[in-house]
Predict the structure of Acyl-CoA synthetase.
Amino acid sequence: MSPNPYNIGLDRTPANHQPLTPLGFLERAASVFPAHVAIVHGGLRRSYADFYSRARQLASALAGQGMGRGDTVSVMLANTPAMLECHYGVPMCGAVLHSINTRLDAGTIAFQLDHAMAKIVITDREFAPLMAEALALAKVTPLVIQYDDPEYSGPGAMAGAEDYDAFVASGDPDFAWLMPEDEWDAISINYTSGTTGDPKGVVSHHRGAYLLAQGNALTTSMAKHSVYLWTLPMFHCNGWCFPWTLSAIIGTHVCLRQVRAAPIWRALAEEGVTHLCGAPIVMSLIESAPEDEKRHLDRRVQFFTAAAPPPETLLASMDAAGFDVTHLYGLTETYGPAVVNEWHGDWSALPGAEQARLKARQGVRYLPLENLTVLDPDTMKPVPADGETIGEVMFRGNVVMKGYFRNPEATQKALADGWFHSGDLGVLHPDGYIQLKDRSKDIIISGGENISSIEVEEALYRHPAVAVAAVVAMPHATWGETPCAFVELNYGQVTDEITLHNWCREHLASYKVPRKFVFEAIPRTSTGKIQKYVLRQRASELSV
Amino acid sequence: MSPNPYNIGLDRTPANHQPLTPLGFLERAASVFPAHVAIVHGGLRRSYADFYSRARQLASALAGQGMGRGDTVSVMLANTPAMLECHYGVPMCGAVLHSINTRLDAGTIAFQLDHAMAKIVITDREFAPLMAEALALAKVTPLVIQYDDPEYSGPGAMAGAEDYDAFVASGDPDFAWLMPEDEWDAISINYTSGTTGDPKGVVSHHRGAYLLAQGNALTTSMAKHSVYLWTLPMFHCNGWCFPWTLSAIIGTHVCLRQVRAAPIWRALAEEGVTHLCGAPIVMSLIESAPEDEKRHLDRRVQFFTAAAPPPETLLASMDAAGFDVTHLYGLTETYGPAVVNEWHGDWSALPGAEQARLKARQGVRYLPLENLTVLDPDTMKPVPADGETIGEVMFRGNVVMKGYFRNPEATQKALADGWFHSGDLGVLHPDGYIQLKDRSKDIIISGGENISSIEVEEALYRHPAVAVAAVVAMPHATWGETPCAFVELNYGQVTDEITLHNWCREHLASYKVPRKFVFEAIPRTSTGKIQKYVLRQRASELSV
């Protein structure tokens, strides 16, 4: 075979090949729209010129402390301007951004700091006592920088920490920031809150961050100058890459230290917010706010939700309040959302229950994800697209992580056979939409029948009184396991075990109906995930 | 220095690294929105499922003829469904798409076919006689396939050619199409209509096509399900990558064989067109249509224009007719538009003349272009950002061509020193926007003073009677050269040499005022570019 003539004398050069990186989005935004408001935080309105300038100062100051390619800078920050600056300034000196979940315990934080080999820590003053506790447990001895957010007036401080603003001010605003040497270079590390074993450090690269940041805008039709409200924690998969998306579309970040209804409604009404993200619990919070906190909106607002399928009643009330809700799905290993419930225009004419059923499905691949399917993990063959046969959800493409840090075994296992094995169980519908059915551990096996705890939860969510439902296996002498339901009620609603039992009988096969209903607060992880292993323990006690 | 820990055990695998290619956009669109209308052409409404299926059949049939990686398939087609199918089907078998400008002469076409080593030619029946003439001159002897567009009823045919639809029908709709082996693989070749010397074959790669296709949507805020009207020839830089953009946003192509006012207005009104592209001449055509052909539009339509700055009067009348006009700029070497006149909201409050002045500037880099500037080509130093000092416009980034086919010398020259040297001369404004001033050849040097022919043309365009103005150098005994203006008038307008002379005296330094005004049809190249070298010849005759 003769050589491909289109490969002769046509090699990559610096003129036609540059590493993909989202850092250039900020440079462009600052250059083209220097005066546009990039960040709103309380009374602060920071322009793109200042945002870019401060990010470069931060990068310069970090470089002055010896930070460079492959060094880890760990941050424990709320959704503040400092956190946004770190998303640019840390990689701009070549370092890797390690965002720590602020709800973790000191021991887990210490593990992360050691495992990530943190050289510098930037902490919000509020979390300084927790960070001090973690550092006392950790082996690493990073330089500590403390951010004193003017919007925070509560307690907390760490003796001897450097002041963040003084640190930034010491940097050069014209610092010649470093492009990645290769788009495969790491931009961030985020530890998964695994239910078992040590947390794993998910390493993301510049290429994937660039592509998912654009994918967010493309997949969700975010127009130029959109205004984004930070109800989603930025420590969660780098805020699903939205810190970078906003620079691409020259939008405005509206920061929020705490997810409470009043400031959310105020931002929606006064800052012209067009987009926000969060779990269904954030929608509940918005929707169940006291009437005097709610505000009239003069435009439709886009709400992107993930973590759990949005219940029908919530969808209806959000629609009435002026929100279009889009269901997304992904994992830390996929940079945040890599799956979208693409909505078909004609579905909006269907009855509410049918719409909710369609919207409960996680959906189809994001544009920058090359492949998504449900495979039998043993044979690696696709399951039939029948909406019933359960397999493992698998991802392939450019928005799948680089791997787990310092964990080649877990990396190889997760990326075996050309697919990222998500560990999530789901089905493939005839129209190609995937739907999660469970994590492997959450399958309830009763009398030899598999029961999807999610299916039972969905039935419960359809009951108007139910705010949150979590179903786990309860040991049973006859059947091995039976479902046990933990329920939190909507504000002002009452119900009882008999009512919910009858409800489930109407909506589920009888073997799937929970034998027990428990009305109590449901334990959650720091990222808001329901701690099913705690519930399984509790159910086990209740079954005795 | 210790090795970067983030590069250990974290290599690319098929699970997390795939070649970027726009071909996957169509696969996704067909999978998620199979029934959505992808292509409208006369009475035809083709769904995404059928579009994808036919593209695979075409790829399969081409593969059956031995086409594979590095083979060239040449097409001479109007803006028809077949042309869209070729943008996917040809690269889906690994081959490279060579689109031929239908306005070229047979000799030039023959040169291209030979230089590109065409193995298969697909021609519209209308252009079959021209293609037959070209093939008689060419050395290559490709298989010829003829497309008989139902929307074309005029003359033309080639004896012995295979029928396009039968050829497609012979292919397998489930053909396992080929991903590029590397995203640097060629996807297309387009010959520039150079004013001197042989045409150069600009080779584009999958990576750049993917990024510019997305860049179009991101830069211009194209929402999901946008409807795009094909007033821009697809043989021109692959229709600026819009054949691929539309699949990314699951939009609808409205085909158009001929750019005439009546079908454009009909499509705008009846097909819900949201976006279209073209040179200012297309806007003139739309705007100067007889009133009974114009239609009321119930929405704003986005018009992307390039090739010449849009004149103020045209901007005003387009605005009144319901169009938002965005000025783009690029070259075949940059996949089409890679520069955008990013509009600032507050500019819309300025007087019309000031808006036109701002909009005449080519602008700033597209999101997927990493760098754009104006350099002194001798020193490769940036010119001062004063809006006056002329230098050469230079591009750097992932939407710069792979190089010129079988022309390593021209490739190296064009991509020297880490920049693509565009050959276009321009200035850099204090706000970072670039503005073209001339091609090197179009500078008029009068009495030692440089005169930008574009500046003189802009002055003429501001006169209400002027539809098209082209200014070139005319030899002059005293001054060496003086400007000579060729002018086409707007429909129904009259003016004369004295009037325009006085107009220019009011708006230009006296040495820039044309010594001669010629009122006659202005010759254009097949891509609509004014043939200044013909005008220079004509001016030289007139000066005798």
Chain A is about 30% helix and 25% strand. The first helix of chain A runs from residue 23 to 32. Chain A touches chain B through 69 residues (CB under 8 Å). The longest strand of chain A covers residues 466-476.
